[in-house]
Amino acid sequence: MANILMITTLYPPFHLGGYDLRCRDIAEELIKNEHTVSVLVTRRGVKTKQIDNNIHRVLHSRFEKAGFIKRIIWDISDLSYIRAQIRRFKPDIIYLFHTMSIARTIFPFLSNLTIPIIYDEGGIGLLDAWNNHGTWIKFCERRSENRWKNLLKKVIVKALRLICGSLLPIHWAMPPMKVYFNSQYSLNRTLQAGVLLQDARVIYSGVDIGKFEFLKRNKLGNTIRFLFPGRIDKLKGIDSAIYAIANLKTIYPNYQFYLDIVGPIQDVAYYEQLQELINKNNLKENVTFIDIVDYEEMPTYYHKADFCLLFTKFESFSRVPLEAMACGSVVICSPVGGNKEIIEEGIDGFIVEPDDLETFRKIMELFIKRPELICEISYAARKKIENKYSFSKYMQQIESMIQETFGDANINSYKNRD
Q1: What strands lie across the sheet with 256-262, from one edge to the other?
Q2: CB of 208 within 8 A of CB of 176?
Q3: How far apart are CA 47 and CA 13, in angstroms?
């Protein structure tokens, strides 16, 4: 079995979405499979550095406000801790996850090591790192027309590297890594941007089908419930869902429509706009905001909803459609990211542009005219999850990648878990 050092931005109970939850799920499964896992994560959620068993909340977030000197001190501190943990833990593999908030110097630092690296790309971390090399590397690579300024900068760079024992790299480099993306869309976007990848593939996320149990729907009733999971942010397109509910309420007065929006408020101004929209359309009794829900409780919300709406304007790949499909809630989502890769239109879900009220109405009309259609669509969706997107199948692929990298993984332990 392998010693695996994970490095990521967030780790539950502090998280923003499915990416961080997936990191936790993978770590726990690897430990169950007798790997030894240590996690280095930023301090977001705690006031000072915190070490709890194998979870080290010690790194700094580059999105925190800081001046040039403080940011360089943070980079030195983070790289020092990573180097020390590598010496203590002696990892066979370094496993990178959510790197958006982590010091950019980590990439050229890791490129000088011989430890193999696996990268889980669930967003735009690689793209961001490729295009934004961070404060220190930018400082080192910037050239001035004034030779005295260049000379002064050389002195500063030499002095800082002397102080930190040459820990700070002076040139940008992307380390060789095995990278897996959670959608073909994400992989293509990264390659088209010119990011050089030696070994890249797609591994779609998986759902624990034991936790997200299927609730059979026999037919649609006159009370129709919608769920919109996601943080309150403009990119999520929640306003489109509210407009859609208002439109349905006008067209079908004999039906009751309810929308639960489950997620934390990230954009207060947008939240206030949504409240104004609700009041303007007399939807106070129809729309409910529910703050952060424990992840273990999410199946209850999927079971309660006939339909799960995802009108996000940007998304690499979300686990929400998979979870909803597993639970029997019919997915209606926007054609972004990996959504089109997992939804077969009219068979196990529906794709619609967020602001296309007419197409959305026509989709709902299908179910209103044929109430039993919800049983057919939800059942087909569940079968797809069982056959292609279960968590055990997902972990078999992760273990296979670890086996390629380290050569000592036992992927058979994941077979027959479903």
Answers
A1: 287-290, 256-262, 223-229, 307-310, 330-333, 350-351
A2: no
A3: 15
Q: Which residues pair with 4 in a beta bridge?
A: 37, 93
User: Hey, what are 365's tokens?
Assistant: 């009309």
DSSP H stretches of helix in 33-145: 68-89, 106-111, 125-131, 134-141
Query: Do 226 and 305 meet the contact criterion of CB atoms below 8 Å apart?
Result: yes
Alpha-carbon distance 244 to 242, whole Å? 5
- Compute φ and ψ for 28, nearest 5 degrees: -65, -40
- Express each pLDDT in 21-36 by its tens digit: 899 999 999 999 999 9
Q: Of 110, 124, 101, 129, give the one whose Cα is nearest residue 44.
A: 101
Which is nearest to 401 in space by CA: 58, 12, 120, 98?
A: 120
Cα gap 343→312, rounded to integer Å:
15
Q: What's residue 407's pLDDT?
A: 63
- The pTM for the full model equals 0.88
